[in-house]
Design a protein that fits this description.
Layout (H helix, E strand, L loop, with lengths): L7 E7 L6 H10 L18 H13 L5 H17 L2 E8 L9 H11 L8 E9 L4 H13 L5 E7 L11 H9 L3 E6 L5 H11 L3 E4 L7 H10 L2 E4 L1 H6 L11 H6 L3 E4 L11 H12 L3 H14 L4 H12 L1
Parallel strand pairs: 1-2, 2-3, 3-4, 4-5, 5-6, 6-7, 7-8
Helix pairs in contact: 3-4, 5-6, 12-13
Bound molecules: hypoxanthine and zinc ion.
């Protein structure tokens, strides 16, 4: 069946990574920037493997140059979310791409993003540092996050190349964010193994892990995640598109869930991976026979793990019931 109208929550969505290629092409044209090399003959984003994915991603962000560009981007992402009945989403946003981590500029970008609005979809932001830009830039990013913590900026996270540095190198940045009252998540166990997840939970003290799927290779870690209630933001379509797993059927999400780990489902960078929340649900139904009860359970886990305030959660909870 189609799960398009089923209400959904998405906790792991990179704002720039959610930009439709046509939107980025349009902006590039307006600004006379040549971004031809990042598109294939069908107009889709072009990359081969994770390293190239990150460089295509960063090249695409060159078209996003002003607060107004980010307002338009946010508006378009909200419209895409509404189309798939995503009633609540948390988006990763990076001061690196919004004025180069300058606090004054960052405030302007942030204000512009918050002007975007679509009825029935609530969006919150998680300020995200980029691992391969290094610990110093991560600290600057954390300071931007701390200064703008609010009921809209609800968390701090880290994406980027997982094989660069060790989690502990970023502990200071996470400390700054934690002290400002922000909730914490970090990518780990996507390309790295279980050791990367251990280091991330121990050194950064996060309550959610982006991906975390390689935890499945370490029974002690699976047990630890289940006992502590650390939530995995799983992105099966992303993992399949990037070759982390060959297919949905081989993806460990069902095994992790059945071992008691709290799992949620998101799209990561939907147009890059030719996915949507509806498609994720459809593939999970096909691979594991998941149905309405399973998707309700996913929503409940996501609602509990969301970084927003209790009043917002009540509103979201009502939307899930309709
Ligand atoms: N992993 C790491 N960094 C990222 C990703 C991802 O899937 N998407 C955008 N930045
Ligand atoms: Zn991600």
């Amino acid at each position: 069946m189609s799960w398009k109208s089923f209400p959904k929550i998405e906790l792991h969505l990179h704002l720039e990574g959610a930009a439709d290629p046509a939107f980025i092409r349009g902006l590039a044209k307006e600004k006379s920037i040549d971004l031809q090399k990042i598109f294939d003959e069908n107009g889709n984003y072009k990359y081969d493997g994770f390293g190239e994915f990150l460089s295509t991603y960063e090249a695409a962000t060159q078209a996003l140059q002003s607060p107004n560009d980010f307002k338009r981007l946010t508006q378009s992402v909200l419209e895409n979310l509404a189309e798939h009945n995503v009633v609540y989403a948390e988006a990763f946003i990076s001061p690196d791409f919004c004025g180069g981590r300058d606090l004054g500029a960052w405030r302007e970008y942030l204000a512009a993003m918050q002007e975007a609005h679509v009825a029935g979809v609530t969006l919150k932001g998680i300020v995200t540092c980029i691992r391969h830009f290094g610990p110093e830039k991560a600290r600057e990013t954390a300071k931007c996050a701390a200064e703008t913590a609010s009921d809209w900026i609800v968390g701090f996270g880290m994406g980027g190349a997982e094989d660069v540095g060790r989690a502990t190198d970023f502990a200071y940045a996470f400390d700054i964010a934690r002290e400002a009252g922000l909730r914490l998540t970090s990518h780990a166990g996507e390309w790295g193994g279980s050791q990367s997840v251990w280091e991330t939970v121990n050194d950064l003290k996060v309550e959610r892990i982006g991906h975390g799927v390689h935890s499945i290779n370490d029974l002690n870690l699976v047990r630890y995640l289940a006992e502590t209630g650390i939530v995995l933001e799983v992105n099966p379509g992303s993992n399949v598109a990037l070759g982390v797993f060959h297919s949905f059927a081989e993806h460990p999400i069902a095994k992790l869930r059945d071992a008691g780990v709290k799992v949620t489902v998101s799209t990561d960078d939907p147009p890059f991976f030719h996915t949507t929340m509806t498609r994720e649900f459809e593939e999970l139904e096909r691979a594991f026979g998941w149905g309405s009860d399973d998707f309700k359970r996913l929503n409940q886990t996501a609602l509990e793990a969301a970084f927003c305030d209790a009043t917002t959660k009540e509103i979201i909870s009502k939307r899930l019931d309709t």
